[in-house]
Amino acid sequence: MARKPVARKRDGTYVLRLDDAMTGLLTALVDQLDPLLDDPSADRGLRRLFPPAHTDDVLAEAAWEIEQGGRLRDARRAALEVVRTAGGEPLTEDQLVAWVQGVNALRLVLAERLDVDGDEEHEATTLERAWAVAQDPTADPARRDEAVRLVHMWQVYEVLGYLLHHAVEALD
Asked: For residue 12, is it left (φ>0), alpha (ψ between -120 and 50) or beta?
């Protein structure tokens, strides 16, 4: 039986069992997302991280952003920093919760970029089409490269879901 990537120890702390490739992937994703947090409105991929508080009132939304936006960005950054720095040392429950929040933030951005909407049939069809183009040696190279990129994004999305599943299971 394979070891779970997140486990609770007898002393109540948690251990991440991630290989160097997984740690490197998480770090690279955090490094890509972190600078985008400076201006979340500039990247539609961040909509799920920073949903509007007042969709029908521009002034109330602006006031909320002034009052709370910085706090939310700081909380997102703190969670991402836990993802970036979590390594061989055991994590407390609070640290693992922050790690979950950081990994979930990464997954939410991917979900937005992949247009994940809960329609599993549509998502499966989209992935199957991308996979077919990625494997087609006769496809236009630019189209094939885009399909390969899309397949890789789906793979990362699934891996992040796997990590979150095991982290939540360990916290339960």
From this structure: left
**Mean of the pLDDT values across residues 48-71?**
82
Length of the chain: 172
- Structure token pair of residue 92: 């407390």
- Measured between alpha carbons, how far is 71 from 167 in angstroms, rounded to an integer? 25
Q: Is the pTM of this model over 0.85?
A: yes
* φ and ψ at residue 135, rounded to 5 degrees: -90, -5
Alpha-helix runs per DSSP H in 115-140: 120-135
**C-alpha to C-alpha distance for 82 and 97, rounded to whole angstroms:** 10
Confidence of residue 26 (pLDDT cuts 50, 70, 90): very high
Residue 66 class from Cβ within 10 Å (0-12 exposed, 13-18 middle, 19+ buried)? exposed
In this structure, the number of other CB atoms found within 10 A of the CB of residue 16 comes to 23
pLDDT score for 50? 82
pLDDT, position 139: 93
